[in-house]
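Hey L., structure's done. Input below.
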Amino acid sequence: MTSPDIPDPDTGPTPDTRTAPDPAASAAPASASFAAPAGHGGLAGLRPRLPSPVQDVVDERFERRGVRLVLKRDDLIHPELIGNKWRKLAPNLSAATGRTVLTFGGAYSNHLRATAAAGRLLGLPTVGVVRGEELAGRPLNASLARCVADGMRLHFVDRATYRGKTASAALAVMLREADAEDAYVVPEGGSNALAVRGCQVLGEELAGRADVVATACGTGGTLAGLASGLGPDGRALGVPVLKGGFLAAGIRGLQAEAFGGPRGDWSLDDRFHFGGYARTTPELDAFAADFEHRHGVPVERVYVAKLLYALVALAEENAFPRGSTVAAVVTGRPFP
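Output:
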């Protein structure tokens, strides 16, 4: 399956990353009970908080519509392998069996940062193929600098080469040029069959606890797994953070790879991308800051802010029946 060429503001400002106090994070017990998936070896030593907590949110914008909002705090799974990054990367890191891990992303990629952090924590060499050959001659932004600080070796490629990265011949050339021919390759965004099955556990943790479970979408792997894990009575809603309307086919392809066919009840609402990946507006910034102030939860701007904005708008449209519970998956935290 061809991964989307995700637009990235390589030449623009770093996305707004303001944080707010987070009582839930500080209250999380360091010795929370969990078990890493079998076969993950050293990953268990990273002590992920699984299952991640579910937090009730009292918000009059939902209450006046008779809707209960809860947050699935996947941002509290691990301080560096956050949210769906843990769920996607853990099975892939296990499959790498100690080899160099090579993956792909843009200049502000959360996935590249998480992979680099995992490499540092587990002692694995990592290589990041970065979209935008012109970036090689510029000072690194904060996101790429963090990758390098965590030991990731960066390999910059032009955008045409990057778009063709899933073709076997082009990938072979890219691996050779990056001096990583024996590397274990993780796709852009971490979304492959292993990752989708990892995200299936997220759905299982929420099965029966919400009528609708919503998540922001980049490559669609989280939604593909989430929908499967929710079971026959759950409904998954995806809020794409990219414009283009291409995700539905990608999600179907990921489910075919992971499960052999479609799974679960899921849908997409493409209205809340705010112009594209990492794009924002003063309205969205104000909304995110207000949500932080109301609830003391740090709102990551690239994905989570758009998800929460969408849910408030949908509640105002009476998209959720009175008496229903809506769960929002908090897939990340602000950076830095």
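Confidence is low (pLDDT under 50) at residues 1-40. The chain is about 35% helix and 15% strand.

-- N.
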